[in-house]
């Protein structure tokens, strides 16, 4: 058998054809996990077949902090031959084609979603790192968009501080009047604000100033509250997860603090 070149792979989703790495700054549809992609991919030109880099190289079995059991890589049957719909337990979008599954728990997750970092640092909560947590943890309110966190989110459990997955990259002003004390220390006394600020675990009051989050953190002009990622099943999540995962992973690797207004997101592409 002739050895494959360094920039080529063979994959069980496209048997009999070699896939070559293509570096192009263009969008495409991954024929493995059936979600969107951009930039470098593995491609069969003759069949117009594309795979995300990770979908082309991800292991057949995976252990992840997201689930207590090993996850197996499976391929979902075509729509005409299946009886029910399944969604990704992390982003809430439909799973089609290639995905990871725990059959015992019926836990499903896109290959790309398994690459979300377990923890990160955010400008609005500099004292403690935020950890990716599931819907089984306490519900809360996103400190940036004011929406209910009914899906996976980045959370500080000690402080009850939550941020939606899709809100982590939103540039915002760091807190100036309120800070989070280190573990084990009581908060310093502060004069009461003109408009009471609710605890992180309580819903926001009606009628906040425009472009300000529930905790008084500045938000960029024109930012609109979005539906939680985990609440979408119409393909919206799939369109943004590829970019989100890439930026978060590279940002964490670079020790970035997310939420900074001067962060250059183009460097995370």
UniProtKB/TrEMBL annotation:
Pfam families: C1_2
InterPro entries in UniProt: C1-like_sf, DC1, PKC_DAG/PE, Znf_ZZ_sf
PROSITE patterns in the record: ZF_DAG_PE_2
Keyword Metal-binding set for record: yes
One term of GO molecular function: zinc ion binding
Domain spans labelled Phorbol-ester/DAG-type: 68-121
Region of interest (Disordered), ranges: 179-216
Biased composition, class Pro residues, residue ranges: 183-211
Protein name: Phorbol-ester/DAG-type domain-containing protein
């Amino acid at each position: 058998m002739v050895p494959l070149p360094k920039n080529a792979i063979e994959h069980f989703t496209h048997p009999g054809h070699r896939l070559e790495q293509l570096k192009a700054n263009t969008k495409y549809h991954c024929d493995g996990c059936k979600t969107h992609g951009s930039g470098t991919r593995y491609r069969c030109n003759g069949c117009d077949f594309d795979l995300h880099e990770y979908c082309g190289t991800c292991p057949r079995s995976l252990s992840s902090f997201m689930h207590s059991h090993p996850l197996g890589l499976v391929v979902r049957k075509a729509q005409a031959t299946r009886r029910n719909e399944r969604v990704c337990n992390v982003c809430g979008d439909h799973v089609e084609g290639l995905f990871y599954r725990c059959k015992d728990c019926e836990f499903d997750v896109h290959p790309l979603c398994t690459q979300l970092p377990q923890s990160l640092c955010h400008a609005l909560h500099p004292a403690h790192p935020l950890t990716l947590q599931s819907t089984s943890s306490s519900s809360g309110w996103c400190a940036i968009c004011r929406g209910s966190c009914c899906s996976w989110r980045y959370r500080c459990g000690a402080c009850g501080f939550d941020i939606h997955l899709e809100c982590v990259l939103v540039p915002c002003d760091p807190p100036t009047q309120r800070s989070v004390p280190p573990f084990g220390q009581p908060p310093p006394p502060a004069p009461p604000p003109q408009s009471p600020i609710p605890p992180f675990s309580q819903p926001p009051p009606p009628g906040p100033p425009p472009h300000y989050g529930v905790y008084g953190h500045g938000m960029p002009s024109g930012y609109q509250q979005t539906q939680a990622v985990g609440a979408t099943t119409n393909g919206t999540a799939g369109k943004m997860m590829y970019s989100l995962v890439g930026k978060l992973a590279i940002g964490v690797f670079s020790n970035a603090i997310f939420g900074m207004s001067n962060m250059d997101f183009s460097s995370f592409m």
